[in-house]
């Protein structure tokens, strides 16, 4: 399985042999030592685990400080089964389209160019999403989303399937479960927005908002059972994160309440009960997905694979 581009390169056997042939013994020995150093470095970053599929579940407007055993048992179980941080950060402005575009391209908004939050595409996307990149490699890709603005992320003629069956988590999950079973997508995004809707209506962290977190968590649990029933659970990496948080009845600012998001990963090769110490960005979602799928992580991506979450 390929390792991420930009990580210590290992000389191929062929280049090692040809170098040995053309160089002096002393130089060749130095090259061997260098190669050994690279190999040791590569081993310490760890090869990507063998994962067939990646399922990204984005919980729109879901504040990580709303997570608790009583309120969101599915998320707490995922944290216990996998690795995560409740102090990951989204990009600015902390709004849906901008955050999701960074989540799915691995770059800052000034690089991808989607700096608005409406339903009309004002400019073309400047870099491909991981869906476009994976589809190009022949992987089946699909999104089941609550908001029409996601259609801007799929360009004309692109293979990625995008479904918008409604607004509520219940509707989305009821469509996502048979979709997973039938299509067995290699890369899939499921987007649930009940938390965000409730935050705008009743206030983030209000009683109604907290109830929406529970509802979302229950639907996430149903989705994960659906993944299991589709026969995909054993070889699917699940990443659960969010595009932003919120305070009062809004978001979009640089304050912690708006930018802190959960980032939780579970599946093959993931450490159990592991708290990720490093800074994690919403952009790391894209890089991690490519890395575990064995696809190259482009140098332009400032998001990096969250290698720390995986057992060596
Ligand atoms: Zn919102």
Question: What's the helix and strand layout?
Answer:
Layout: H1 13-22, H2 25-45, E1 53-59, H3 73-81, E2 83-89, H4 96-105, H5 109-112, H6 130-136, E3 141-144, E4 161-163, H7 169-183, E5 187-192, H8 194-202, H9 207-229, E6 236-241, H10 256-259, E7 260-266, E8 274-275, H11 284-293
Parallel strand pairs: 1-5, 1-6, 2-8, 3-4, 3-5
Antiparallel strand pairs: 2-7, 6-7
Helix pairs in contact: 1-2, 4-11, 7-9, 8-9
The protein binds zinc ion.
Give every kind of bound small molecule, once each: zinc ion
Secondary-structure-based class equals alpha/beta
Low-pLDDT segments = 1-45
For the record, the count of structural domains works out to 2
Question: Helical amount among residues, as a percent range?
Answer: 25-40%
Q: What general form does the structure show?
A: globular
Determine the CATH topology of the largest domain.
Alkaline Phosphatase, subunit A
Query: What would the average pLDDT be, to the nearest integer?
Result: 87
Distance between the termini: 14 Å
Tell me the CATH superfamily of the largest domain: Alkaline Phosphatase, subunit A
CATH C-level of the largest domain = Alpha Beta
Strand order of the largest sheet: 4-3-5-1-6-7-2-8
Number of distinct helices:
11
């Amino acid at each position: 399985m390929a390792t991420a581009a930009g990580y210590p390169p290992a000389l191929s056997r062929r280049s090692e042999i040809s170098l040995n042939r053309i160089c002096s013994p002393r130089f060749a020995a130095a090259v061997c030592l260098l190669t050994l150093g690279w190999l040791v470095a590569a081993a310490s970053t760890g090869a990507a685990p063998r994962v067939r599929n990646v399922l990204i579940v984005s919980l729109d407007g879901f504040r990580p400080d709303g997570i608790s055993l009583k309120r969101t048992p599915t998320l707490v179980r995922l944290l216990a089964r996998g690795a995560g941080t409740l102090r990951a950060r989204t990009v600015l402005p902390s709004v849906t389209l901008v955050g999701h575009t960074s989540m799915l391209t691995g770059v800052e908004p000034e690089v991808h160019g989607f700096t608005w939050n409406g339903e009309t595409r004002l400019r073309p996307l400047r870099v491909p999403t991981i869906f476009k990149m994976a589809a190009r490699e022949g992987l089946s890709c699909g999104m089941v989303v609550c908001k029409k603005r996601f259609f801007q992320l799929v360009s004309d003629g692109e293979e990625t399937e995008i479904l918008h069956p409604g607004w509520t988590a219940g509707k989305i999950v009821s469509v996502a479960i048979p979709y997973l079973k039938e299509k067995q997508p290699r890369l899939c995004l499921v987007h649930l927005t009940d938390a965000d809707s409730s935050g705008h209506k009743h206030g983030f962290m209000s009683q109604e908002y907290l109830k929406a977190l529970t509802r979302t968590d229950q639907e996430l649990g149903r989705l994960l059972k659906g993944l299991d029933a589709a026969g995909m659970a054993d070889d699917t990496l699940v990443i659960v994160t969010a595009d932003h948080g919120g305070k009062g009845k809004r978001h979009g600012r640089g304050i912690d309440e708006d930018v802190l998001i959960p980032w939780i990963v579970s599946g093959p090769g993931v450490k159990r009960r592991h708290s990720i110490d490093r800074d994690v960005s919403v952009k790391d979602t894209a890089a991690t997905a490519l890395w575990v799928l064995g696809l190259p992580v482009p140098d332009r991506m400032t998001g990096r694979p969250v290698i720390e979450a995986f057992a060596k």
